[in-house]
Amino acid sequence: MPTYEYRCAKGHHFELFQSMSDEPVDKCPECGAASERILSAGAGVIFKGSGFYITDYRSDTYKKSAEADTGSKGSGSTSDSKPASGSSPTSGSAE
Asked: Are 9 and 34 in contact (CB under 8 A)?
């Protein structure tokens, strides 16, 4: 249900949770004077959860370029001088 803001003729401000189909309140709950519904800015939008990043809506060309760029940087870091699996410098056969 939306929140509606009201103002009475004597300057009181109040808010009410009302259904969109409800009639506007015509009397102030504080003083009983005539009131009117006023336009309000509403609430801010809050995004929760993953996503909502600037890169979510980029073009496919940009995404492919960025992916290729990060892929080329990561491939050079695995060239450590490690022995192949199954063999090690100390695992010789003792015959």
From this structure: yes
In the numeric block, the tokens 């001088």 are attached to 81
Statement: residue 7 has pLDDT above 90: yes
Report pLDDT for 63.
78
- Residue 63: inside a domain, yes or no? no
Higher pLDDT, 94 or 22: 22
Phi, psi of 3 (to 5 degrees): -100, 125
Token pair of 62, please?
A: 């940009």
44 domain residue, yes or no: no
Percent of the chain with pLDDT over 70: 60
Q: Is 29 part of any domain?
A: yes
Write down how long the chain is.
95
